[in-house]
Specification:
383 residues; 2 domains; 4-stranded antiparallel sheet
Length: 383
């Protein structure tokens, strides 16, 4: 039986289509429905806990949610995150979760409380007291009862794109395991060996007691998202960003090819390290996380046409934009009418001011002023 992958897409262009199931062998893909009432900008970390899939969601307003999905792939519960901003990866820890609070350079612990109706967020560890992202803490894993964290390192003056001093540390002591990594992501432990993806170079790093550190593969694309089954490793690779997420400015392209504009899933033979890949560009540009879909746990029966669904979402968004544009056009027409009325009033006002000035300079006006003063004075004396 072929493995199926649960795939999260971050920073999506097609709102609310951010999570899917993909069968590599048959190239089959199905969307998992997320929140239909609120706009979702993407999904990041995924994990499995207490017979549920747990997912970090990027909201339209820059906030994050933690979502639980049941065994029928239905959205069960959404928990708004109050402390955690720009949430990246998630792992199970002490009957709860550890989550990267990337904006605040820390890890937060999340506990599900009150019969799964609420969550409790507490700070677990922080790299610095800065109130904004300065090192881009982005991934977590546990190995030998120790917690490992990856980060980009101090931001380059040219921006995150050029920051090459990433590192992997053990917390809380901040012991450096490896450094000078160009955008590390996706720490992962398999059979007590730790793996890390160097996103900007495509290197797959392995850390083992037997061989220490070694680079076992070089892949194309911005690699992020890693999982495995009995025979294969699976690695996600994202398309090159056309615009910087942090600044909004257009990225300077370096000979962008057709391959640069696509997202990919690599399937790697665990014994030989030979690999092949398939494009997922028609579903999403940026892959964040991967997880093996265990058919004993989940029951997926929905049948849809994923490409059509994405096209329909685009069409809905275009229709919404058209409606907004019509509204703004009507507002503009209204304001133009108001301006035209003001334009009509302005010459009349000027004429009135001119006539008033003539009246004030007349003998009659001056006589009236004297009369009013005399009347006021006379009234005071009578009082």
């Amino acid at each position: 039986m072929f493995s199926k992958l649960i795939i999260s897409f971050c920073n999506v262009n097609t709102k609310n289509l951010a999570l899917g199931i993909y069968e590599y062998e048959n190239d089959n893909f199905n969307w998992i429905e997320l929140d239909q009432e609120n706009i979702i900008n993407g999904a990041t970390g995924i994990t499995y806990f207490k017979n549920r899939l747990w997912l970090l969601v990027q909201k339209n307003n820059g906030e994050n949610n933690l979502c639980s999905i049941n065994n029928n792939f239905e959205l069960e519960k959404t928990y708004p995150l109050q402390m955690t901003k720009d949430a990246h990866s998630i792992i199970v820890h002490d009957n709860g979760f550890l989550v990267n609070d990337t904006k605040h350079n820390r890890l937060n612990k999340i506990e599900i409380i009150n019969n799964q109706n609420e969550i409790k967020e507490t700070e677990f560890w922080k790299y610095s007291n800065d109130l904004d992202d300065v090192v881009h803490v982005n991934s977590i894993c546990k190995k030998d009862n120790k917690i490992f964290v990856s980060m980009f390192g101090k931001k380059s003056e040219e921006g995150w794109k050029f920051t090459k001093n990433g590192k992997i540390i053990i917390i809380p002591e901040k012991k450096i395991i490896f450094e000078n990594i160009f955008h590390p992501h996706t720490l992962f432990v398999i059979e007590n060996d730790m793996y890390c993806l160097e996103s900007a170079t495509g290197y797959v790093h392995k850390f083992s007691k037997k061989n220490g550190h070694e680079v076992i593969l070089k892949l194309e694309g911005y690699v992020r998202g890693f999982t495995f089954d009995e025979n294969y490793f699976y690695v996600g690779a994202s398309a090159r960003r056309r615009r910087s997420k942090s600044t909004g400015t257009q990225n300077v392209s370096e000979a962008v090819t057709d391959e640069d504009a696509q997202s990919w899933i690599y399937r790697i033979d665990r014994k030989t390290l030979e690999f092949e890949r398939k494009s997922l560009a028609i579903y999403g540009e940026e892959i964040y996380d991967l997880m093996i879909y265990n058919q004993n746990d989940y029951h997926f029966s929905k049948k849809d046409v994923p490409i059509l669904k994405r096209v329909w979402k685009y069409q809905d968004e275009i229709e919404n934009y058209k409606n907004e544009l019509t509204h703004y056009k009507n507002e503009l027409v209204h304001h133009k009418d108001q301006l035209n009325k003001l334009a009509d009033i302005e010459p009349k006002l000027k004429k009135f001011e001119k006539e008033l000035k003539i009246i004030k300079n007349s003998k009659t006006w001056k006589a009236l002023q004297y009369y009013l003063r005399f009347k006021k004075l006379f009234q005071r004396k009578n009082i």
